[in-house]
Amino acid sequence: MKIAMVTTFYPPYHFGGDAVFIRRLSHALARRGHDVHVIHDVDAFRLLAPDREIVETAEPEGLTVHRLESATPARGTLSCLATQQLGRPVVHGARMQRLFDVEQFDVIQFHNISLVGGPGVLALGDAIKIYMAHEHWLVCPSHVLWRHGRELCTGKECLRCQLHHRRPPQLWRATSLLEREARHVDVFYSPSRFSADKHREFGFGRELEVIPYFLPDADSGAEQAEALLDRPSERPFFLFVGRLERIKGLQDVIPEFAGDGNAELWVVGTGEFEAELKAQAEGIPRVRFLGARSSEQLRSLYAEALAVVVPSVCYETFGIILLEAFREGTPVLARRLGPFPEIVEHSQGGILFENADELRAGLKHLEEDAALRERLGERGRNALEMTWTESVVLKEYFGMIRRVAEEKNPALARALADEAQETA
């Protein structure tokens, strides 16, 4: 197939796990011989992180990246503002349409389209169209259902919330633009049942299928662990991995490491809330901030950790951190919120907590009971292999495309059916 991935952010011009997964999916498809084109918006990244240094990374054969970038920063800002307000690819729309006309894609997959074109980009191109909801942008202007920057959203107060987040209210959200343009999409899907249900609860009119994130197969040649990094301490440790933002909930974990004790908390990541978290941890020597780490170093950290703590206080759409822990046979201690219960309950690879007492008890059990850690870690690893690996999830992914193709592109449907038989 010839496949277009349309997204606002793509590595190295990105901020979080959704872009990492888009790259992982694109690489997996290219390895299988598909012709993959990624179309993403550099203007949006430059607007949000104008001073960040970029280290370019190589892409595999079969993957072409098209970067949408304006000639000047001012024009780039105008492009993003116009899209944010009008919900259309005002500046880069013509270039995208030319790409679609020239390349004649079989499949166009939309990801985070907030600044690459808004709802208007869904009308471009003539192909099977699928949309993966990595966030809750379809029903939330701030993407994360985190109302007024302080609480879970239980009912829409979007105008006040956007002002609190210091974002201009989006004019297009007062119209039926999203509903109209969504008709161009054949399938919407989400990585978790929880997120699909949230979209319905907050009024999105299309049903979302569920196909989860995945990690590469063990024999894919990707993301293999290498040498262990220098340890900052010889003590056992719990691990937190993620952006240092208030919504990630690390502020609830740090106090549990005050006072005497043996196990430490090691924190991997950076973010806007980093200074506040370090101030909170001042005088608590059992909390160590390690900054950003390479994927190889992370795998070593996962493997050595007593457990990985996932304390997010917002509605995530998935939890790739949990899968990364399971890959190394390490249990997780996750908040009973969002998609984490369905992942932990399916895998039986961790413990859930709801409040400070349950968090404290979970940390104690996991630190003191090596047999429990071993048992949970083995269950998590087994569940990963059965549910969340590349080969397993891509069968679902191709099956979804094949169902649409049976009506829109029978020749493609037959080709996918033949490929599935050969793989089997």
What does this structure look like?
The chain is an alpha/beta fold. Helix 8 links the parallel strand 11 and strand 12. Helix 2 packs across helix 3, helix 10 packs across helix 13 and helix 14 runs antiparallel to helix 15. It is globular.
Sequence-ordered SSE layout with sheet pairings:
Blueprint: E1 2-7, H1 17-31, E2 35-41, H2 42-48, E3 63-68, H3 73-86, H4 93-103, E4 107-110, E5 128-132, E6 146-147, E7 151-152, H5 158-164, H6 177-182, E8 187-190, H7 193-201, E9 208-210, E10 237-241, E11 264-268, H8 274-281, E12 287-291, H9 295-304, E13 308-310, H10 320-327, E14 332-335, H11 340-347, E15 350-353, H12 356-368, H13 370-387, H14 390-408, H15 410-423
Parallel strand pairs: 1-2, 1-4, 2-3, 4-5, 5-8, 8-9, 10-11, 11-12, 13-14, 14-15
Antiparallel strand pairs: 6-7
Write a brief caption for the model.
The protein has helices at 17-31, 42-48, 73-86, 93-103, 158-164, 177-182, 193-201, 274-281, 295-304, 320-327, 340-347, 356-368, 370-387, 390-408, 410-423; strands at 2-7, 35-41, 63-68, 107-110, 128-132, 146-147, 151-152, 187-190, 208-210, 237-241, 264-268, 287-291, 308-310, 332-335, 350-353. The protein is α/β, with parallel strands linked by helices and 424 residues long. Strands 3-2-1-4-5-8-9 form a 7-stranded parallel beta sheet, sandwiched between helices. The protein has a 3-stranded parallel beta sheet with strand order 10-11-12, with helices on one face. Strands 13-14-15 form a 3-stranded parallel beta sheet, with helices on both faces.
